[in-house]
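Can't attach files on this board, so I'm pasting raw text. These are the components:
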Amino acid sequence: MTDGGGSAGETRAVGDPVVSIRGVHKVFQVADGRTRALESIDVDIQRGEFVSLIGPSGCGKSTLLRLIGDLTAPTAGIVTVNGKPARKARLDRDYGMVFQAPVLFDWRTVEGNVRLPLDIMGVRGRERDRRAREMLELVELHDFARHYPRQLSGGMQQRVAIARALAFEPKILLMDEPFGALDEMTRERMNSELLRIWERTKTTIVFVTHSIPEAVFLSSRVIVMSARPGRITNVIDVDLGRPRNEETREQERYFQLVTAVRESLRGRVDGETPVASPDRTMAEGTIG
Amino acid sequence: MAERIADAAVTTRGGRVRTVLFALLIPFAIVLVWEGVKFLGGDPWRIQNVLGLGVSFEHRPPLRIGMASDLSLPHVWEVLGSFFEPVQRRSDVSLGQFLVGAALYTWREAALGFLVGALLGLTLASIFIHSRLLERAFVPYVIASQTVPIVALAPMIVFAFGQGVLSVVIIATYLTFFPVTIAGIRGLTSPDPRALELMRSYAASRWAVFWKLRLPASLPYLFTALKISATASIVGAIIGEGPGGIPEGLGRAIINFNQQYISGPEKLWATILVSAVLGILFFSVVRAVELFVLRGRALAAG
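---
Top answer:
Structure tokens for the assembled complex are below.
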């Protein structure tokens, strides 16, 4: 399935980027003036990459994700997805979206929820049913097809949301803190699950998170951001082998990378608030 | 998990039995209070030949309460008995048969008004949620329309559309559309903003957003309004039948039996009873449809 040694650097070298962000600024009008949510952002994301955006609350990582998905527009700069403006990419249904909350429709069964994008995109009959079933098998929920969302646990609901996002085979998966509401145990299980899905579908994933271990475990690259104004402060290549599993979490290199990300986060926070103790910055890095 | 669901079902079933028992207890309690008041302060009454034993029983209430007289408050058994008596002297039709026929007739008018009103209300709500301009411009008039008393408006509607079923249906519609409009606006705008973003990420058309998200999300709100509208439509039809010149329905029966109240108060009471039962039945039909449509949702459990 994977060559095991495929480092992030190799994948990044080939082809045009799937996502290209050039000189993006985003300013929000708020009651008492303007907030610089994002400033001078330049990012390229390559095909098949798993990129995490990490940073404290208010660093604009979710905004950056929403810019890629054309759910909000940049104040300045250009966002290109698959060589097209973000808006065109959205209209072409190039990406699937997963939010922190599953946002399932409670009047549809699990299967009905996975079928939703297919219904909207005009996929009908057997083809639609086949794809919905396939996606439910992918997230291992085929036994719950006829259940309603409220009968499922939080983790299961989020797996339905992932199946729904993948049902129409989008080229990119945008995930906004998808496991943020789950407990630690479930979150780690979901991380492994997501990697398995990523390796099988070869979808490009952009993943927003508060959690350093999660970002390191999942990603081929971690983009570290700081707040006020939202900027990219560091980009860390995660050169851990694949497939990754529970043993990965115990490797020396894994701990080194977690420390590297933590120090990148701390560097900015220390610079802005000198009084902050290391413990506090660590907490902010993890929980935000 | 299957166990927990099964447990919930048992609890619900137990709860249901209790609900039904309690529901049966209420009319019993009403009858008890009703006859209790008459027992204390009503007119004297006697039963000749109790159980065929040749004895007669007479009761003289200790107090005199005007409200409990036989004219104001006929005995329960007289109201119930009146259903089996002829509707008019020398008539073959019993009051019960007549009232059931009248109720069905009125219900048909009400149901038509209900359907038209529900569609009108939903259509208005759909337009308003898509256009702030139209909402701001027209909602005040929708509200104003409901402050005009229907008794004042009914003759005008009949004058405009002529006597007949059409006018009655329009009056029923008039009372029906308002709750649906207001609940519709609330319901159609109820989806989670992220659900709307999800639809946006699918590049879903307005049409698709309406049918796949807004309308299903609005159903719990709409059914609340539809249950109000179901009873309102019956009130509208009954009121409309007077000026509308419809002799077959409950509206005319109420007017007639009102005029004959001195000679037979129990007939008016029987008619009111039938109107109330009709309202409850229509409400229950809408509730049953609600339970079916909202099955699976958390809200439907209540």
